[in-house]
Amino acid sequence: MHLLSRNPLLRQFVCLETDDVDELSAALSWNRPHRIARLSSSKGYRASLSHVALSSLTLGFLTTRGATFDHIGPGESHFSLLIPFAGLSTHSVAGKTLPLTVSAAALHSAGRPATLLTSEHVEILSIGFQYAALVAELQQRLQRSIRAPLQFSPQVDLATLGGALLRSRIVALCRLLDDPANAHLHHLGIRQFERSLISHLIDAQPHNHTRMLHRCSPAGPWQVRAAEAFIQAHAHEPLSLGDLAALAGVSARSLEYSFRRTRGCSPMEFLRAVRFERVHADLLRAAPGSKVSDVAAKWGFLHFGRFAKDYEKRFGELPSATLRRSKFAS
């Protein structure tokens, strides 16, 4: 990357370095059209863009030198989350102009045009969420269809717990993607990360269906058992709370309440525990030459340092010790 970024993300996915705003506009238009105009009279305008497309998300990291004004088309298929890392910007949606700073991100809902005014130097991480994926998760969690199109509040407060966690999870995903060991973009761990981010956005950011998410009535014991059985049978797949709610035939709020009351954990915590058990079992019967990292990755664990610590707490030994016992037994 020719531009010096203080916060380089998606280094493995640089797709464009240019001084042409029209070329940049075309490259940015993977989810919705962009029309960028330069505001600076300097001749030193330069932009660097990284881009990667996953199953339900697209991610881009943009670094620019030179102030610009960007007309962003409505786009019907994606919501766009813009998280700034450097520089000062403002964005306008539905006649309101809002700041875009390190503590305030922008979320442009599908079907709504927007504008973006940037300073002389900016670094912005853009995340596109598929409209269909967000709506599917929301409807599964509510156990009903939504009548009004999903619309989020356009300003994301990154200083709140939910906003800070959303930002840290997205940055963690970018760093995972930058690791050559995770080159397979449709790995279980990456796909699970996508599902988790979609769920978190629905929970953390206000939208026009937020009130419905908080309705709760206890799930029956059979519904909790059905969710447990489904997790056991599908732990090798990327699952969301919405998937489990749909299977149990109850709202996500109700399922979580009953799960915690009867099992002492959330459904997603139960899924994580099942995956740890699968790793443990695989390590015990591993063939000579097997690697802990490969077995952990198979079950969706990509933060290997954190995985090893959690594994040791759960089983009283490091995963490498379990693997050695398997080799001795063979």
Q: Care to describe what's here?
A:
The chain is of the alpha+beta class. It contains twelve helices and twelve strands. The protein has helices at residues 21-28, 131-142, 161-178, 188-204, 210-213, 221-234, 241-248, 252-263, 267-284, 292-298, 304-315, 319-329; strands spanning 14-18, 34-38, 46-53, 57-65, 68-72, 78-86, 89-93, 96-100, 104-108, 114-118, 121-130, 155-157. The longest helix has 18 residues, at 161-178. 36% of the residues are buried.
CATH superfamily of the largest domain: Jelly Rolls
Number of strands: 12
Order of helices and strands: EHEEEEEEEEEEHEHHHHHHHHHH
Overall pLDDT level: 89
The structural class is: alpha+beta
State Rg: 22 Å
Number of domains: 3
Termini Cα gap: 49 Å
State which percent range the strand residues make up: 15-25%
Oligomer classification: single chain
Q: What's the level 1 CATH class of the largest domain?
A: Mainly Beta
User: What is the percent of helical residues?
Assistant: 40-55%
- The CATH architecture name of the largest domain reads Sandwich
Largest β-sheet summary: 7 strands, antiparallel
* Count of helical stretches: 12
> Per the principal axes of the C-alpha atoms, what is the gross shape?
globular
Identify low-pLDDT runs. none
CATH topology (level 3) name of the largest domain: Jelly Rolls
